[in-house]
Design brief:
homodimer, 235 residues, Arc Repressor Mutant, subunit A, 2 domains, 3-stranded antiparallel β-sheet, 37% strand, elongated, DNA-binding
DNA sequence: GAGTGGTCTAGACCACAAC
DNA sequence: TTGTGGTCTAGACCACTCT
């Protein structure tokens, strides 16, 4: 038997998702639900608060609770860890570190991370392999002032993304997904220079400080980003 | 002054994000926090429950609460409403309905929506324009058994995606993002057939029933998907 | 058995909205 | 003035974990 607050939440969720309650419609008042379920106000409140934090309803002090207007195509998209993706499909993951250098932040690299010119960056280029075949080309910059331990990490053995995820908590990130011709990545990827590729860029910050920038190029013919997800807070 | 449960939550969040508490570390017990803040257990419980539902900590009955292992690059990506995107950038939105037909579900279309062969689908093709210039090409299928009102909607005036979002609640969706050559979309988009394009596919369900499938092709040189977001539940 | 979190009660005071 | 939701208290019983 599910907890009462969960059953209350589920019952209201069902009425919204079935269409019985539409956007803007009123949810029963807390005291009505108390009477319906024969429980205390805290229990009802917990159910409604959960629905509100999930975005299914809007609560207004002094007015009541209402079904929320549907959100605009907000989607939870899993941006996968490359090694995990490859291994999950039963392939052997391989990593080839092509270049590693410490560079000043006064050039184009520094501009990408929006850093002052006197900082030092670790610049990495590597190729991710699936069954020894090129899968993705990655160019990464790491702000050494924010992550000094990265200077000693072995990025020929551990993918930079996996290493950072395990070592550095982040608070803000930005993704950009574009399609482009392979261009410079054509050689390492083993495709034609005009081949359509999926380009994933990510900027990551921790408490306002830039941590890393990464640009990953995938062969469009072999890679896609997919995500299955449930509607607003349906878990 | 923020509510007490929010301040407690914020204080713990800060300790996790600053790195003071790392993955697997123990969060103070509820009774310890009660003593620290001089409040009741319900208040502490509300703070910790919120952190747990945000994925920052894991709570285990009989053991305690612990900092969660960081999630694998899970990101909230906003898949934008095309009309809103164009208008938000200050351009004039235009829509050209190229084709509209009701088709049986016994062909390739039915397979895309995974529907029985006896169902009827509404098949639409349209071009989204920004300042009268082609911006994206959309091919859509709508399950008329699930959304009969769509048969009467004016999709020459309202983009199908906007119409559906406003009229039909969904519970499950799946996205697939790929890069591909323009191919058939080259003509309507006004680009070369080999031009790299971003292809966004979406399947949408409502309580297990297919609602719609859409495949949208964007000119890679003019379009990108971006998302700025905060870490696990940081609002 | 002692300690943990999960749930629930029956009150209370407050800020805010509508009348 | 009345009613709403937001917050908080000081208890309680339970299921579970660890020893």
């Amino acid at each position: 038997m599910a907890p009462l607050h969960q059953r209350i939440r589920g019952a209201i969720e069902a009425r919204i998702l079935s269409g019985e309650l539409g956007p803007g419609d009123r949810i029963p008042f807390e005291h009505e639900l108390m009477a319906d379920y024969g429980c205390s106000r805290m229990t009802v409140n917990k159910a409604l608060s959960a629905l509100a934090s999930a975005g299914l309803i809007v609560r207004q002090r002094g007015r009541g609770s209402f079904v929320a207007r549907p959100r605009i195509h907000m989607a939870a998209l899993a941006i996968p860890d490359i090694r995990e993706t490859i291994e999950a499909r039963g392939h052997v993951y391989g990593l080839r570190l092509v270049a590693r250098a410490e560079v000043g932040a006064d050039g184009a690299e520094g501009a990408l991370l929006r850093l002052p010119a006197d900082r030092t960056l670790l610049s990495l280029r590597c190729v991710h392999l699936a069954d020894a075949r090129p899968y993705a080309v990655e160019a990464r910059l790491i702000n050494l002032a924010a992550v000094p331990e990265a200077g000693a990490a072995d990025f020929a053995a551990t993918p930079p993304g996996s290493w950072l995820l395990a070592h550095v908590p982040w608070t803000q990130a930005e993704h950009r997904i574009t399609a482009a011709a392979a261009g410079e990545a054509a050689g390492p990827l083993g495709v034609d220079a005009a081949a359509p590729c999926l380009v994933l860029e990510r900027w990551t910050w921790r408490e306002g400080e830039s941590i890393t920038y990464v640009r990953t190029v995938f062969d469009g013919a072999r890679f896609d980003l997919t995500a299955h997800f449930a509607a607003q807070g349906m878990g």
